[in-house]
TrEMBL record:
GO biological process: lipopolysaccharide biosynthetic process
Organism: Thermoclostridium caenicola
UniProt keyword Membrane, yes or no: yes
GO molecular function: pentosyltransferase activity
TM spans (from-to): 12-40, 52-71, 130-150, 170-196, 230-247, 259-278, 398-414, 423-440
Signal sequence annotation: none
Coiled-coil portions: none
Protein name: Dolichyl-phosphate-mannose-protein mannosyltransferase
Pfam families (UniProt xref): PMT_2
Predominant location category: membrane
Family annotation (InterPro entries): LipidA_mod_glycosyltrf_83 (IPR050297), RgtA/B/C-like (IPR038731)
Glycosyltransferase RgtA/B/C/D-like domain residues: 116-263
Alphabetic keyword roster: Cell membrane, Glycosyltransferase, Membrane, Transferase, Transmembrane, Transmembrane helix
Taxonomic placement: Bacteria, Bacillati, Bacillota, Clostridia, Eubacteriales
Annotated GO CC locations: plasma membrane
């Protein structure tokens, strides 16, 4: 009896070992990690109660990001170093940083410098970097929660939960919180503004105050980083749809008032902030963009697939040209590159689509470790960090491709169904971003704003799948199969007993 039990245990262990081995051989480590995460997510999504889920999502998201910044000490590099150094000067009452060409041409970065400067003033130069990284964790945790809350207005509860949990485990934002980028706080406020505009489940407000708050928060996001122009164009399309919808006079007036509230508050807050910066002497250029053509010069560079490069920087800024002559040179370069021909354009666009939407920006966070060729020891076995990097990049791609596929699946599968007008906002933002970034400078990290909307729309695909793979249906099929198998077993036993009885009768 005992020997038979031990044998069964050994057989089970062998099957498990062999199955796991085959799984890793066929699917590789990133796929195994992703599959395990999805399986765990499904369990949590189905098991946790409504009130506990928000707490779990917020705490889980923050702890994952906090653990990362505690382990990986990302140094200040590139523009992030320049912005932080300017913030330190601001905290000391020194506005000399605004005399740099960087802050004269791209004065819109001043809003973020002021934000960081206030944190430096509060925590001091020694503790401010750590404080800013913790704030980044909080901003990104807020983004994760907003994905759940916004998606919950359109999709099933479980689909909304899974969409937000997918983003919670998405590698790029987890690693990027260690970088002092203005994208964290900007994206949070933009999403918060859209939440006030789109939500109809939790917020009980009339259209006008919704519009006022939406315009305010989107403007705050734009002051931190001028990405909100894409959002405002998307909202223009949304309000056009609303205004063309049939309705009575009161409804049309409410829609018009909400539209005006969003745009007027957005423009007023941005203008007031810019004027305040000018009058305070922080930057005489306010929040202006004084080199509009630069993004197009870089974005149309075929050799560097539309990304930042030193060649273009030296071409435009290396000769010490005046502002007027530099602008003329930029126009000339843009015209030359626009004449590259359809084949090169097609090739450039394909490269930019891959570079912007699919490539990872993980190097911004741990590039210093990668460049150092560090080796770690896992259970006394040496592991190169380059191998870890390969796993993380593959895992990052699995998350982003899953979100893309789910979004596309939902859009195409439900294209004939009547959708909520508010869904036009994330869809329009992604479409407009797709077109705009074909022409201007791209970097994988620039997709930070677009990615939450991609995960929101993934809820549509998850809804479609859940309709066809309903758990109760699967359970019913399973029960029927079990019942059928049980009936067959009973029939078999009955036939067997009849056969034995007949044999006994013949023997007698």
């Amino acid at each position: 009896m005992i020997l038979r039990f031990i044998k069964r245990i050994l057989d089970a262990l062998f099957v498990v070992f062999f199955g796991v081995l085959c799984f890793f051989m066929v699917f590789r480590v990133p796929t195994a990690i992703f599959a395990a995460y999805i399986a765990l997510s499904l369990v949590l999504v189905y098991r946790i109660r409504s009130k506990g889920f928000v707490f779990f999502l917020a705490l889980g998201s923050f702890l994952i990001r906090f653990a990362y910044i505690s382990i990986v000490k990302t140094p200040l590099e590139s523009d992030f170093k320049l912005l932080y150094e300017a913030a330190v000067l601001f905290s000391q009452g020194d506005y000399s940083f605004s005399e740099l060409v960087y802050f004269r041409d791209w004065a819109y970065q001043t809003g973020f410098v002021i934000y960081q400067g206030l944190v430096v003033k509060l925590f001091g130069p020694d503790g401010s970097i750590w404080a800013l990284k913790i704030l980044n964790c909080l901003w990104n945790t807020g983004i994760t929660l907003l994905i759940y809350l916004i998606a919950g207005n359109f999709f099933k509860e479980r689909s909304s939960r899974l969409a937000s949990v997918l983003y919670m485990g998405f590698v790029f934002p987890i690693t990027f919180v260690s970088v002092l980028s203005n994208q964290h706080i900007s994206t949070f406020f933009i999403l918060l503004g859209l939440y006030f505009l789109m939500d109809q489940k939790l917020i009980r407000m009339k259209p006008l105050p919704r519009g006022l708050l939406a315009g305010l928060f989107i403007a705050l996001g734009n002051i931190m980083r001028p990405d909100a122009l894409l959002v405002m164009v998307s909202l223009a399309g949304y309000f056009l749809i609303l205004l063309l919808r049939p309705g009575n006079g009161k409804q049309r007036l409410e829609r018009l008032m909400q539209c005006l509230a969003v745009f007027l508050v957005y423009l007023a807050v941005n203008s007031l902030a810019s004027q305040a910066i000018i009058r305070s002497g922080v930057n005489t250029e306010g929040l202006r963009n004084n080199n509009f053509y630069w993004k197009f010069v870089v974005g149309l560079n075929y050799e560097h697939r539309g990304g930042y490069n030193e060649d273009d920087y030296l071409l435009i800024y290396g000769s010490g040209l005046t502002e007027e002559k530099r602008e003329e040179l930029e126009k000339q370069v843009i015209l030359e590159r626009l004449g590259m021909g359809p084949k090169k354009f097609a090739s450039l666009f394909m490269q930019k689509i891959q570079f912007f939407w699919c490539d990872s920006a993980l190097d911004w966070s741990y590039g210093h470790i990668l460049r150092a060729n560090k080796v770690f020891y896992l259970l006394s076995n040496p592991v190169k960090f380059s191998d870890v990097d390969a796993v993380l990049k593959d895992l990052n791609e699995l998350f982003i491709y899953t979100a893309m596929l789910l979004s596309l699946l939902g859009v195409f599968a439900r294209r004939k169904e009547e959708k909520d007008d508010r869904l036009a906002i994330p869809a329009a933002l992604l479409l407009i971003s797709f077109v705009v970034y074909l022409l201007i400078e791209v970097q994988p990290r620039y997709a930070y704003l677009q990615q939450p909307f991609l995960f929101i729309l993934s809820g549509m695909g998850l809804d479609f799948l859940s309709d066809r793979l309903d758990v109760s249906t699967l359970r019913m099929i399973w029960e029927k199969l079990k019942g059928k198998a049980g009936q067959e077993s009973i029939d078999y036993k009955g036939r067997k007993n009849d056969t034995i009885t007949r044999h006994k009768s013949m023997d007698n």
